[in-house]
Structures are given as C-alpha cells and as structure tokens.
Design a protein that fits this description.
- This protein is 33% helix and 21% strand.
- By secondary structure, it is α+β, with helices and mostly antiparallel strands.
- The protein has two domains: 20-158, PurM-like, N-terminal domain (60s Ribosomal Protein L30, Chain: A); 167-344, PurM-like C-terminal domain (Phosphoribosyl-aminoimidazole Synthetase, Chain A, domain 2).
- Strands 8-10-7-11-9-12-13 form a seven-stranded mixed β-sheet, with helices on both faces.
- The longest helix is centred in the N-terminal third of the chain and has 18 residues, at 80-97.
- The radius of gyration is 22 Å and the shape is globular.
- The N and C termini lie far apart (45 Å).
- The relative contact order is 0.14.
Length: 359
C-alpha cells in the first residue's frame, strides 16, 4: 500500500466521502495507514513503500486466505465490524494450528466504487482490532476496484521449537482430540438464515442463539492452546471445513491413515444440544452440523496416549475444553461409531467450493 491524500472542500476543511469512489484509492490507503499505525520494533518499514520490511524469525510461517462476498459471506447478514474480525481470525487460526506466534498481516482489498466508506471503516476497525488482540500489525497490502467485496489476507508468524506442528505426524493408535465445541458455527449460519435481513448487532445480541451466531461471525483463534499443544501433538490442523473433511486431510498427509470417531464424544455447546434436542449423541441434521458443518476454527490434533495427562493440564491452564473424540488406525477411511458401538452413516457435506459436475 502506498500513501495518498483525502479530498478537501473549497474552504480547506476535509470532506467525509460517502463511498470509495469519492474517497479515491490514495484516500482509502491513507485512512487504513492511519488506523494501522504501530510502534512494533519488528516493523522496519510499514505501509507507504512498495513493500514492507520486517524482522523475521529463523522459521517463518506464512498463511493466506480469501473471504469473497456471496461465497463466504453476505453483507446483509454480516455486520461489517464482525466481518473484519473474521477475516483476521480465520488466518490467526491457521497459525494457531502450526503452534506459531502471529506477527504481521497483509491485506488485499477489493470493493465496488460505490461501496460505503463508513462501512469500510468499520470493516477495517474490526480487522485491525482483532489483530491487535493477538499483537498483530497490518503491515501492507493492496486495494483495487471489483464488482464485489474481497478480503485476501496473508499472515506471517514465527515458529520456535517444538513448533511448527504439521499435519503429517499422526501415527496408528494416536488419540484424536479437538478443542472447544463443534457445530456452533453451522448452527449460527442456520440461524442467520432464519433472521430477517439486514442482520444488525442489536438483533444478534438479543437472539437466544447469540452464542452460535457469534461463533460463525466472530470465530475463535486458539493461539494459546496451539502454542502449548506444540509440545504434545504429533499432528494438528484447524477445523475450517469440518471434521469429516479436515481430519481425512490430516490423515492423508500422515501416510494415508484412517480414524474412528465416536459421535457420543463430540463436544457440543448447551445451545447446540438444546436446539437439536441432542441426547446420547448428535444424529441427522445435528450430526451434519457437528461433524461436517465447518468454520468452527477449533484445533483438531492427534497425540500419543502417553501425553493425555499433559493435554489435560493444558486444558486447565488455558481454560479451554480439550476432548478426545477417537483414535487413529492403520486402515484408511474415517468411520463414525454411535453410542451403541454400531457404525453410523457419514453425514452429507454442508458446503463444497468445487462440486464435480455430471458429464
């Protein structure tokens, strides 16, 4: 991002442009630069040059993610500040899954010319504010015009031993664990579809399903847990697409292993259990949300049974539930087992980016 100036009125007083076209590219960058000011000593050169200059660690961890309007979110159901927070959080979650410490953020921002300047200010306030909570500075990026809003985020972090933790370390007879609860984001998305549009913060705060709604719109990033688990986990990743899709990815990277998951052990929140009337284990739509819903951004990892006590201590120190949900096995494939010990049919995926077309 390079610097520019805001438009001024004929009397010399600064105007408040109503949209991005009136603000101009340079004006938008200038506003972002002011909002992202930092005295972080690791930043040698921030927004204002052709590239940022930062001091990096020996092992640098880099992740990137896209949030695209009408693919990942709808402006009518995503309050702008929460949208900015989510754009940062989903990338923080990737670094948490590696056991890394986030440092710097870069943002590729595209939007229509008539996009509200005030709404963009809110998005950036959420994005920068969520980064500050994790000691992350917006250090650079780019802006351009597009038909829809796009936030392309790159995050850079440091990995100190025993990190980074990869997906490829799982072994047969490892236990499978997950942090927090699963299925809340999918339930929150379901509830958003039931509310009238546009969805406002007032509507969310007063809704009985406020917790799952916020788990979808303002997800966690388990940074402290990821750092502590780096010493115990053999393999780890975050749950962006759900257990049924993400765990097989981890097992494939670990040599094509499989796993058995006990549905009765899946950790579910009180609002989730109440909404779906879950008893012994989630079934039907509840199981689809819990195991295949996605966007929970919890950590799923495998570890030897020898470190189960150490994992319990990490849960106590972080105040975060960490639940054993299954076991890795040599045979490929992911198998779900119900409370009675019988195999359960896998639920259908709730979302696919690329669906095979019939020929």
């Amino acid at each position: 991002m390079t610097d520019g100036g805001d438009a001024s009125g004929t009397n010399g007083e600064a105007k408040r442009p109503s949209d991005l076209a009136a603000l101009s590219e340079d004006g938008l960058i200038r506003r972002i630069r002011r909002a992202a000011e930092s005295e972080d000593p690791r930043i040698i050169r921030n927004i204002g040059d052709d590239a940022a200059v930062v001091a990096a660690a020996e092992k640098t961890v880099v992740t990137t993610d896209l949030l695209i309007e009408d693919v990942h979110f709808k402006l009518s159901t995503s309050p702008p500040k929460l949208l900015g927070r989510k754009a940062m959080a989903v990338n923080l979650s990737d670094l948490a899954a590696m056991g890394a410490v986030p440092r710097f953020a870069f943002l590729g921002l595209a939007a229509p010319g008539n996009f509200s300047a005030a709404m963009m200010d809110e998005i950036m306030a959420g994005f920068i504010g969520r980064g500050q909570e994790a000691a992350v500075t917006l250090t650079g990026g780019d802006v351009c015009r597009a038909d829809k809003l796009v936030l392309a985020v790159t995050l850079i972090g440091d990995a100190e031993p025993p990190a980074p933790v990869y997906r490829s370390g799982a072994r047969p007879r490892d236990l499978v664990f997950v942090t927090g609860t699963v299925g809340d984001s999918a339930l929150g998305l379901l509830r958003l579809g039931e509310l009238g549009e546009p969805v406002t913060m007032e509507m969310i705060e007063s809704d009985p399903l406020r917790y799952p709604i916020l788990r979808h719109l303002d997800p966690p990033a388990r940074l402290e847990a990821g750092l502590r688990l780096a010493a115990a986990a053999r393999s780890m990743m975050d749950l962006s697409d759900g257990i049924m899709k993400d765990l097989p990815r981890l097992l494939l990277e670990s040599g094509g292993l499989g796993a058995v998951i006990e549905t009765a052990l899946l950790p579910l929140s009180a609002p989730f259990k109440e909404r779906f009337q879950v008893k012994a284990a989630p079934e039907g739509r509840a199981l689809a949300c819990a195991a295949a819903g996605g966007e929970d951004y919890e950590l799923i990892f495998t570890a030897s049974s020898d470190v189960e006590a150490a994992i319990s201590r990490i849960a106590e120190r972080t105040g975060l539930a960490i639940t054993r949900i299954g076991e890795v096995r040599q045979e490929p494939g992911l198998v779900l087992i119900g409370p009675d010990g019988d195999e359960v049919a896998p639920p259908a995926m709730l979302f696919e980016h690329f669906v095979p077309q019939a020929r």
